[in-house]
Amino acid sequence: MQEQLSLSRRQVLKGAGAAALTGAATLVPTGKAMAARGKAPRWAFIVDLRRCIGCRACTVACKAEFNVPIGAFRAAVYGEVTGVYPNSEMHFLPRLCNHCEGNKEDKVPPCVKECPEYPKDRREFVTSDGKKIRYRGGATYKRPDGLILFDNKLCTGCGKCIEACPYGARNFNKLLISGKDSTKNGITKCDFCQHRIEKGVAPSCVNICPGRARFFGDLNDPASKVSKLNKQFGLVDKRQETTLLPAENTVPMCFYIDDHGALSKIAAAKQKFEKNDAISDRII
Amino acid sequence: MNQTEMDENRTAAKHRSNIYGMLALVYRQEMTSDLLKHVKDPRFLGVLNDLETEKTEEIDAFFQKPESELLEDLAVEYTRLFLGPGKHISPHESVHHQRDDGQWGKLWGASTAEVKKLIESTGLTYSENFKGLPDHIAVELEFMQQLTLREELAWMDADMDAAVSCRQAEKNFIEEHLIPWIPDFCEKVIQQAELPFYRVLAALTHSFIEFERRR
Amino acid sequence: MKPEINRRDLFKLGIASAAILATGKAIGSSALAGTVDFVEGGKDFSPETGAERKMIPSACWNCVTRDSMIGFVEDGRLVKLEGHPNSIRGKGKICAKGAAGINQLYDPDRILYPMKRAGKRGEGKWKRISWDEALTDLAGRLKKLRDEGHPEKFMFHYGRMKASSSKIIKSVFLASYGTKTIGNHTSICEGAKWTGQELTWGKHYDNWDFDNTKMVVNFGSNCLEAHTNSIPVSQRLIDAVVDRKVKLFTFDVRISNTAAKSTEWVPVKPGTDRAVVLAMCKVIMDAGLYDKDFFNFIKATKNRKESTDAKIAALKKHLATFTPEWAEKISGVPAAKIKSIALEFAKTKPACVISYRGAVAHHHGADTERAVQMLAAITGNIDNPGGRCRGVGAKWKYPKGPKEKPKAKALKITHGFKGDIAYPTHGANHQVMKMIKDGKAGRPEIYMWYCYTPVYSHGEVQENIDVLKDESLIPFTVCVNAYYDESAALADLILPNPSYLEWWDWEDMVSPTQVPEYYIRQPFVKPLGESRDFKDVVCELADRMGFPLGFNSAEEFVKMSCEKTPVVKAAGGFEYMKKHGVYHDPNAKPKYYMYKKEVKTDDLKKEGVIFDTAAGVYWNWKKSKAKSEAEAKEKGYTKTKNAYKGYVGQEIEGKVYAGFKPDKVNKSGYFELYSELLEMKNFPALPSFTPIPSHEKMGPDDLILTSYKVAVHIHSRSANCKWLTEICHDNPAKINTKTARRLGIKSGDKIKIKSEIGEITTTADVTEGVVPGIVAISHHLGHWEYGRYASGNKVPMAGNDDPDLKLKTWSTHGVHPNWIMANKPDPISGQWAMLDNVVKVTRA
Predict the structure, then answer these.
(1) Could you tell me the pLDDT band of residue C540, with boundaries at 50, 70 and 90?
(2) Same domain as C354, residue C238
(3) Are C218 and C133 in the same domain?
(4) What is the number of domains present in chain A?
(5) N or C: which end of chain B has fewer CB within 10 A?
(6) What pLDDT is attached to residue C4?
(7) Is the pLDDT of residue A36 over 80?
(8) Which residues contact B64 (CB under 8 A, 6 or more apart)?
(9) Number of C-beta neighbours around residue B215 at 10 A
C-alpha cells in the first residue's frame, strides 16, 4: 500500500536502519508480541504532559520524516502562559491526530464519515497469526488496528475530512496532488509512522522526544508501556479528562497524563486551541 | 532508411552535439580569454544576430569593450547569477525541477540522485576532478552532448539499434530532465542578467531546448 | 521574445559551436568521462531496487552540546538525522535544532566556491576564484606578515571551535604560524561563569548530577531549552523531576521552558540573583546547616590556616548584612521564600545549585557565580554524587604538529581595554571591534573569522559594521562560512566551509554521568561543490608557508588521534569509531571527589617543585614565568606569572591533596571563597553585593532590556533552517501586563525601544510571563542576510525554485536586539554585561 508519495519505501528502510543499529527492534510491540493473541493491536498514543519540555523536537522530527511542507503540521506543540503574575504558569500541549475510535454507535470517526471516497474497496487486515479481519478502504479510512489512514490514490481533494476533524489534525499538503483531481491537493496527517511501526520501530516523534514524554504502543498487549501507563493513570476509563474535546464524542486514542490540569487551563485560555483550528507550531 | 536519410540524421546529431557541447562549456564556468575570442567571432555573433535574441547593436557594443574589462565584468556577472554568495539562481536541476512529490528546492535533491544514476547507467562516469554537483546545468548539457555524439557514431556505422537507443535516451532525458527546469531557469536568468551575454545565452538555451522538445 | 530555432539555424549554430568546442580543452575540464555505451551500461536505477541506504554514526554541531547522532544516507543524499542510541550522553536523543540540521546541508543559498570581493567592501560584487588562487593569495599575505616578524597581525576569531577542530586550527596551525591574536565568543556566552569558577575551584565547567540529586535550585539557566549540554542534561532533569519527584526552583526574569517545568518559577529582578544567593547562604550559615567537613577544603579567610570554626565565624560575619529582607528589597523575591528554599536546600542531601547566563551576564556576574559556588560549597554539594560536579570529558591524545614552534605574539585586543577588566580569562571579545577602532593596541592586517559573525553576535551592531567595512582599519578580511551572513557580506575573501555534516572531528563534550565518552563526527556526504573543511585548508596553508603540520587532513588527524589514544586504540581505533561513533569504558567508575585524592610524595620531590607557605601550594616554578628559583620564592606562588601552570598539590593540615587544581589564574588548591586575587585588584575578597551602575541611575519609566534563547534556534546561525524558522520567525518584545498598562502599551502595538546606543522598532507582546520592569526579546532573529528564510532576501521568482518558499506564511523576520545593546564588560571577568541595558519604551 502506498498512501502517498512522500511516504514510500525510503522511510520504511530508515526505520529498519535504526532498529539494526540498536539491535533492539522491540521499541513497540512487534509481530512476535502480537502472535500469541491473534487479534489486531489497539494502538494508543500517550503524552505525559509532566515530561514535555516544549522543545519541539517532535515537530521537527515529523517534518523531517515526511518532508511536511511549510504551512502544514502533522505534529505540533502548543505553549500557553496561564495565570496572573507572579503566579504565572506555562503549559505545553503536544498535538497530533487522535486516531479516534469513533462514537459508540457506529465506531467511525468524523473524518472517515465525511469522506466521499469511503467506503470503497474491500481489504483484509492480517494479524500476526494469520487471522484475517475485513475492512473497507477509502481516501480516509480506519484500519482494524485503529490507525486512521489516508490513501491519496482515492482522494478527490475535497477537504471535507479537514473540516470534519474537531482537532485540526488534518491539513492540505500543498505539494501533493490529490489522486482523483489534479486541480486539488491531497492531505497530510499523522499516521503514527505506519512505515516504522510495521517494522517494530517507534514513531519518529517518540524516538526523538528528549523528555520521553511520548509513548506509543498496543493497549491489547498488557506488557506494553502504554498498557502500564493506562493502568497507572486510568487513561481510558477517565477519557473525559485525559483526551481533548471529549464533548465531540470522537473517542480519541491519544491520551494525556495531566496532573497539573494543563488541558483545562489551556482550554480556558482559549487563545490558541479552538475547535477545528489547524494544528500549528509557533514560538513567539 | 536510405543512405541520404542516415547522412542527414548523422549531420543533425553532429550539430546538436556541438551545440550541447558549446552550451555546456559556457555554463560550466566563467568566460575565459580563449572562449571570448570565439564568442566574438563573427560566425558566432552572426548566428546570435540572426536569431534576433537581442538587439544587434547592443551585443556588438558590448563586445567592443577591452578584453580585460569584458572578462572581469563577465566573471562578476557569472558569479552574481549562478554562484552567489547570497541570492543567486542555482544552476542545478534539483532546485528548479518542480516535482509532483514536492522533493525539490534544495541542493542534492531527488532529481540529483536520478540524474546521477541515469548518467552512470549509460557507462559514463563523473571525472575525479569534477567538484560540482551531479545535476549542474553544464553536466546535463554535456550528457546530451555525449548522447548525441554517440548517435552520430551510430549513424556513421549504420547501427540502427544503437541510433534508436540513443534517440530514445535523448528524448527521455529531454522530457524528464531538461524541459522540467531549463526553460524556467533560463527565464530567471533573462530577468536577472545585467549584461547582454548571459541574457542572450539564456534565450538561446531556451530556444534550443524548445527546438529539441519539438523534434 | 524568445526566438524559434529552425533546422537551418541548427546547422549554423552547430558549425559556430563546433569552432568554440575546438578550444574547449583550454576552458576547464569536462564533468563526464568515458563514452556512452549501452552495452556496458545498464546499471539499475529503478527506485524499487536501486537505492542504497547507509546508516552512519556521527555527531551534531548545531550547539556546543555536540550530541552523538546517526544519519541515514540514500543515493548519496542524507535523508534524516536521529539521536545515537548507544551514546551514554544523549541516550538516543537530539533536539529540534539537531534534526533540522539537514536544512543547512542542502540549503540552496549555500556558498559552494571560494569568492573574492570584486567591488568595494560590502558592495555585494563578487568573483568566484579557484582554491589555488584563494590560497596563493592568502598564504602569500600570511607568510609576508610572518616573515616580517608580525604574525600577530593575523587575527583569527572563532565562534564554535572545539575538540579536534580547536586542536588542529588553534593548537597546531595558529601556534606553528605564531599568532596568539585569537578571539573567541565566550564573553557573549558565559565568560563570567568560567572566571567565577576559575577563582573558586579552578578549571571551568560544572556538570549537574541530576541522575543522583534530590533537589535543584536554578539561577538563570534555561537548560531545558538551551544550555551547553542541553540534551544530556535536560532529559535527566525531567527524569528527576517526574520520576523521583525532585523539587526544582527556577529563579528567572521570565517563564522559560525550564521555569515552566519547575516546581516553582521564582521571578527575580534582572541582575539581582546574587542578592538572593547571598541571603540563602546567610540563612543556611545562621541555621548551622552547613557541611562542616567540606570547610576543610574551603578558604574563607585571608589566613588559610584558620580553624574550621574560625572560617565559619568569618563567613557568618561577612554574610551578616545580607538578610532575606534586604534581598527582598533588591530582588523582589519575598524574604520568606528565600528562607524556605534555603533551608530546604541545606537539608536535602544531595542537592544541586545551577546557574547560567541569566544570572551571570551582568556587571560583576563573575561574583554571582562565586556566590553560587559558595552556596554549593557550604552545603557540601561540590563534586559529589547529586551535586555540582567538575566536568568530565574524553581526553584524546593527538599529533601536536611541528616540534619547533615560534614564540607566538599577540595584539592585545581580545581581552578588553587596558585596566578595564581584572581577570578576562576567557577574553572580552565583544569589544574587539571597538578596540580595532581605537587602534591604541594595534590593529590586525588580516582579520579572519570562523563560525562567527562579528557584525551580528554582539552589541552595537552599527559600530561593528562600520569597523569591519573600513579598509583603513582592517586591510584584509576573510570569512570562513558555508552561508552568506551579515559578516560574510563584509569579507574580502570567502572560503566556503562545508556544513558540519560533511567533516571530521573527534569529540569530547562533558558527560553527565561523570564517565567520559569518546566520540567522533564523520561526514555523511562529501563536501558539496568546492566547499572544503577549513581544517583541511589549514593543512595546505601550512604546507604552502613551509611548515607542514604532519598530517594532511582532518580525517588523518582523527585517525592518528584514535591510534594515539590508548583507550580508543584498545577498543579498535579509527575503524571502530567509524563504525560505532561512540565509545566509553564500560568498567569506568564515575569521577567524584577528585579534589580528595592525595598527591604522591614523589611528585613533591620532583625537580623544580617548591612549597609556598602562604598559599600552602606545592608548585613547579619551572613551568611558570619565573626566571629562577630565587625569583619564584621571592615573588611567591600567587604573584608569579603563570605559577598555576606548575601547580602540584595543596597542603591542608599536613596532607597534600590534588585539591581544586587552578586553571588560568594563580588560585590555590583550596575551594576559594576568599579570593586574594580579587582582593589584589580591589574587589571584595568574599562574594558580595555590588549594585549594577546603570540600574542605579534608572528613571521611573525606564525598563531593563533582556534577551534569551528559544528551544528551536541556535545563537545566530539557524534562521536558514526552514523547519525552525517556520516555528519561530518573530520575536516581539515581551512586557509584563502591569508595566505595559503603565506605559499605555497593548499587545500588537508598534513600539520603540531606545537605549544609549540606539533605537529599534518592534511589536509588543504583553504577557504575564515576565517580571515587571523589563522588556524581553529573544536574540536569534532580525537577519538582513543569511538566506531566504532568515531574511526574506531572495531572487525574484525564487518561489519557483523552492516549493516551501511559496508556502512561507510569514513575512516578518524579527528584530535583532543587539543593535541597541552596549558592549560593556563585567569588570571582573570581561563577560559582556548584555543583560544590564537600560531602555525607554514608547509607542511608535
Answers:
(1) very high
(2) yes
(3) no
(4) 1
(5) N
(6) 78
(7) no
(8) none
(9) 13
Q: Do A177 and B100 touch (CB under 8 A)?
A: yes
CATH number at residue A251: 3.30.70.20
Give SS3 for C207: strand
Whole-angstrom distance, CA of residue C651 vs CA of residue C670: 9
CATH number of the domain that residue B97 is part of: 1.10.3480.10
Are residues C661 and C750 both part of a single domain?
no
Q: Which residues on chain C are in Cβ contact (under 8 Å) with B28?
A: 27-28, 30-31
Interface pTM, i.e. ipTM: 0.94
| Domain count of the fold of chain B | 1
How far off is chain C from A132, nearest CA to CA, in Å?
Answer: 28
* Whether the predicted pLDDT of A234 surpasses 50: yes
Q: Is residue C553 a contact partner of residue C536, using CB atoms and an 8 Å limit?
A: yes
Domain that holds residue C816: 697-843
Q: Chain B closest CA to A111's CA: distance in Å?
A: 24
Please indicate if any CB of chain C lies within 8 Å of the CB of B79: yes
Instruction: Report which of C644, C517, C609 is spatially closest to residue C571, judged by C-alpha positions.
Output: C517
In a domain, A160, yes or no: no
The answer to whether residue A32 scores a pLDDT higher than 80 is no
How near does any CA of chain B get to the CA of C116, in Å?
10
Count CB-CB contacts under 10 A for residue C151.
Answer: 23
Domain match, C235 and C177 both: no
**A280: in domain:** no
| Position B54 confidence tier, pLDDT thresholds 50, 70, 90 | low
Average pLDDT, chain C: 94
Residues C213 and C357 in one domain: yes
Q: Per-residue pLDDT tens for A151-161? A: 999 999 999 99
**Has residue C798 got a pLDDT over 80?**
no
Q: Do C93 and A84 touch (CB under 8 A)?
A: no
What local confidence, expressed as pLDDT, does residue C591 receive? 97
In a domain, C748, yes or no: yes
User: What does the DSSP 8-state code read for residue B92?
Assistant: B
pLDDT at residue C802 tops 90: no
The residues that bridge with A124 in the sheet, in sequence order, are A134
pLDDT at res. A1? 29
pLDDT of C51 strictly over 70: no
Q: Which of C80, C92, C767 sits opposite A64 (nearest CB)?
A: C80
Name which of B164, B139, A88 is nearest C738 in CA terms: A88
Alpha helices in chain B, H assignment, sequence order: 3-28, 33-39, 42-51, 56-64, 67-82, 93-96, 110-121, 137-156, 160-173, 182-192, 196-214
Q: Is residue A217 part of a domain?
A: yes
Residue-range definition of the domain harbouring residue B194: 3-214
Same domain for C242 and C202, yes or no, is yes
Contact A53 C807 (CB under 8 A): no
**C99 at A interface, C-beta within 8 A:** yes
Q: Which helix (H) or strand (E) holds C146?
A: helix C131-147
Q: Does B75 touch chain C (CB under 8 A)?
A: yes
- Residue A18's domain comprises 9-106+192-269
Residue C577 in domain = no
Q: pLDDT tens across C464-495, in order?
A: 999 999 999 999 999 999 999 999 999 999 99
Of all residues in chain C, the one with the smallest CA distance to A281 is C727
Q: Which of residues 157-176 of A touch B (CB under 8 A)?
A: 173, 175-176
Number of domain units in chain C: 5
Cell of C815: 528584530
Chain A CB within 8 Å of residue C69 CB: no
Same domain, C382 and C521: no
Measured in angstroms, the CA of A169 and the nearest CA of chain B are apart by 21
- Contacting residues of C for B11, CB less than 8 Å apart: 11
- Cβ-nearest to C82 among A18, A70, A212: A18
- Same structural domain, C222 and C361: yes
Query: Residue C191: phi, psi to the nearest 5?
Result: -50, -40
Cα–Cα distance for residue pair A46/A58, rounded to 1 Å = 14
Q: Which amino acid is at A96?
A: L
